[in-house]
Amino acid sequence: MISMSTNKEAERSYIVYDHNRESRREIPRNTQAINDYQEHTLQASKEIAESYLESQKEIIKSYQSTWAPYIENVYNAFWNNWASPQRAAEIYARTVSNFADNVMATSRIANNTLFMNIGAYKTFVQREKDDVKEFSRIAANTARTFENNSREFGPNTRPA
Fold this sequence. Notes:
This protein has 160 residues and is an all-alpha fold.
Protein backbone atom coordinates (compact mmCIF):
# COMPACT_ATOMS: atom_id res chain seq x y z
CA MET A 1 0.00 0.00 0.00
CA ILE A 2 2.85 2.39 0.75
CA SER A 3 4.45 1.90 -2.66
CA MET A 4 1.11 2.52 -4.39
CA SER A 5 0.66 5.73 -2.42
CA THR A 6 4.22 6.80 -3.26
CA ASN A 7 3.59 6.08 -6.94
CA LYS A 8 0.40 8.13 -6.85
CA GLU A 9 2.20 11.02 -5.18
CA ALA A 10 4.96 10.83 -7.77
CA GLU A 11 2.36 10.79 -10.54
CA ARG A 12 0.61 13.82 -9.03
CA SER A 13 3.93 15.64 -8.67
CA TYR A 14 4.73 14.91 -12.31
CA ILE A 15 1.31 16.18 -13.41
CA VAL A 16 1.82 19.42 -11.47
CA TYR A 17 5.33 19.74 -12.91
CA ASP A 18 4.02 19.07 -16.43
CA HIS A 19 1.26 21.67 -16.12
CA ASN A 20 3.72 24.17 -14.72
CA ARG A 21 6.07 23.52 -17.64
CA GLU A 22 3.22 23.94 -20.16
CA SER A 23 2.17 27.21 -18.52
CA ARG A 24 5.73 28.52 -18.66
CA ARG A 25 5.89 27.69 -22.37
CA GLU A 26 2.80 29.85 -22.94
CA ILE A 27 4.34 32.93 -21.25
CA PRO A 28 6.37 34.16 -24.26
CA ARG A 29 3.41 33.79 -26.60
CA ASN A 30 1.07 35.63 -24.23
CA THR A 31 3.67 38.32 -23.56
CA GLN A 32 4.22 38.80 -27.29
CA ALA A 33 0.48 39.02 -27.90
CA ILE A 34 0.14 41.71 -25.23
CA ASN A 35 3.14 43.62 -26.60
CA ASP A 36 1.76 43.43 -30.15
CA TYR A 37 -1.62 44.66 -28.94
CA GLN A 38 -0.04 47.59 -27.07
CA GLU A 39 2.15 48.56 -30.05
CA HIS A 40 -0.82 48.35 -32.40
CA THR A 41 -2.94 50.47 -30.04
CA LEU A 42 -0.20 53.10 -29.70
CA GLN A 43 0.31 53.27 -33.47
CA ALA A 44 -3.44 53.50 -34.10
CA SER A 45 -3.76 56.25 -31.47
CA LYS A 46 -0.94 58.18 -33.10
CA GLU A 47 -2.54 57.86 -36.54
CA ILE A 48 -5.94 58.89 -35.19
CA ALA A 49 -4.45 61.97 -33.52
CA GLU A 50 -2.52 62.93 -36.66
CA SER A 51 -5.60 62.46 -38.82
CA TYR A 52 -7.70 64.53 -36.44
CA LEU A 53 -5.13 67.35 -36.34
CA GLU A 54 -4.82 67.34 -40.13
CA SER A 55 -8.60 67.54 -40.55
CA GLN A 56 -8.75 70.40 -38.05
CA LYS A 57 -6.08 72.27 -40.02
CA GLU A 58 -8.08 71.76 -43.21
CA ILE A 59 -11.26 72.97 -41.53
CA ILE A 60 -9.52 76.09 -40.24
CA LYS A 61 -8.05 76.81 -43.70
CA SER A 62 -11.48 76.27 -45.23
CA TYR A 63 -13.13 78.69 -42.81
CA GLN A 64 -10.41 81.28 -43.27
CA SER A 65 -10.61 81.09 -47.04
CA THR A 66 -14.40 81.19 -46.86
CA TRP A 67 -14.82 84.16 -44.52
CA ALA A 68 -12.72 86.71 -46.39
CA PRO A 69 -14.58 86.43 -49.70
CA TYR A 70 -17.87 86.12 -47.87
CA ILE A 71 -17.42 89.40 -46.05
CA GLU A 72 -16.24 91.08 -49.23
CA ASN A 73 -19.13 89.74 -51.27
CA VAL A 74 -21.93 89.80 -48.71
CA TYR A 75 -23.50 92.85 -50.27
CA ASN A 76 -23.38 91.36 -53.77
CA ALA A 77 -24.70 88.00 -52.60
CA PHE A 78 -27.82 89.46 -51.03
CA TRP A 79 -28.62 92.32 -53.40
CA ASN A 80 -27.27 91.44 -56.80
CA ASN A 81 -27.29 87.65 -56.90
CA TRP A 82 -30.01 86.40 -54.59
CA ALA A 83 -32.55 85.38 -57.22
CA SER A 84 -30.13 83.95 -59.78
CA PRO A 85 -31.18 80.45 -60.95
CA GLN A 86 -27.55 79.73 -61.79
CA ARG A 87 -26.46 80.55 -58.22
CA ALA A 88 -29.24 78.35 -56.78
CA ALA A 89 -28.17 75.47 -59.04
CA GLU A 90 -24.53 75.87 -57.93
CA ILE A 91 -25.51 75.84 -54.26
CA TYR A 92 -27.71 72.79 -54.79
CA ALA A 93 -24.98 70.93 -56.74
CA ARG A 94 -22.39 71.63 -54.03
CA THR A 95 -24.79 70.51 -51.31
CA VAL A 96 -25.65 67.27 -53.11
CA SER A 97 -21.98 66.57 -53.89
CA ASN A 98 -20.96 67.17 -50.28
CA PHE A 99 -23.78 64.93 -49.02
CA ALA A 100 -22.79 62.14 -51.46
CA ASP A 101 -19.13 62.40 -50.38
CA ASN A 102 -20.18 62.15 -46.73
CA VAL A 103 -22.36 59.09 -47.43
CA MET A 104 -19.48 57.36 -49.24
CA ALA A 105 -17.02 58.14 -46.43
CA THR A 106 -19.50 56.88 -43.84
CA SER A 107 -20.02 53.68 -45.84
CA ARG A 108 -16.27 53.10 -46.05
CA ILE A 109 -15.91 53.62 -42.30
CA ALA A 110 -18.83 51.26 -41.59
CA ASN A 111 -17.39 48.60 -43.91
CA ASN A 112 -13.93 48.89 -42.40
CA THR A 113 -15.41 48.60 -38.91
CA LEU A 114 -17.48 45.58 -39.94
CA PHE A 115 -14.55 43.73 -41.49
CA MET A 116 -12.30 44.55 -38.54
CA ASN A 117 -14.92 43.19 -36.15
CA ILE A 118 -15.31 40.04 -38.24
CA GLY A 119 -11.55 39.47 -38.03
CA ALA A 120 -11.55 40.08 -34.29
CA TYR A 121 -14.50 37.71 -33.88
CA LYS A 122 -12.68 34.96 -35.80
CA THR A 123 -9.67 35.38 -33.52
CA PHE A 124 -11.95 35.34 -30.47
CA VAL A 125 -13.70 32.14 -31.62
CA GLN A 126 -10.37 30.42 -32.28
CA ARG A 127 -9.07 31.41 -28.85
CA GLU A 128 -12.29 30.22 -27.18
CA LYS A 129 -12.03 26.92 -29.06
CA ASP A 130 -8.49 26.46 -27.73
CA ASP A 131 -9.60 27.43 -24.22
CA VAL A 132 -12.52 24.96 -24.30
CA LYS A 133 -10.14 22.18 -25.36
CA GLU A 134 -7.87 23.08 -22.45
CA PHE A 135 -10.79 23.18 -19.98
CA SER A 136 -12.00 19.81 -21.30
CA ARG A 137 -8.52 18.35 -20.78
CA ILE A 138 -8.45 19.77 -17.25
CA ALA A 139 -11.91 18.32 -16.50
CA ALA A 140 -10.89 14.90 -17.85
CA ASN A 141 -7.72 14.94 -15.74
CA THR A 142 -9.71 15.95 -12.67
CA ALA A 143 -12.19 13.13 -13.29
CA ARG A 144 -9.33 10.63 -13.64
CA THR A 145 -7.85 11.93 -10.38
CA PHE A 146 -11.17 11.45 -8.59
CA GLU A 147 -11.48 7.99 -10.11
CA ASN A 148 -7.98 7.03 -8.99
CA ASN A 149 -8.56 8.46 -5.52
CA SER A 150 -11.86 6.59 -5.26
CA ARG A 151 -10.14 3.33 -6.10
CA GLU A 152 -7.23 3.98 -3.79
CA PHE A 153 -9.17 5.38 -0.83
CA GLY A 154 -12.63 4.00 -1.54
CA PRO A 155 -14.87 1.88 0.71
CA ASN A 156 -13.04 -1.40 -0.12
CA THR A 157 -9.71 -0.19 1.31
CA ARG A 158 -8.88 -0.58 4.99
CA PRO A 159 -6.77 1.82 6.97
CA ALA A 160 -3.26 0.58 7.65
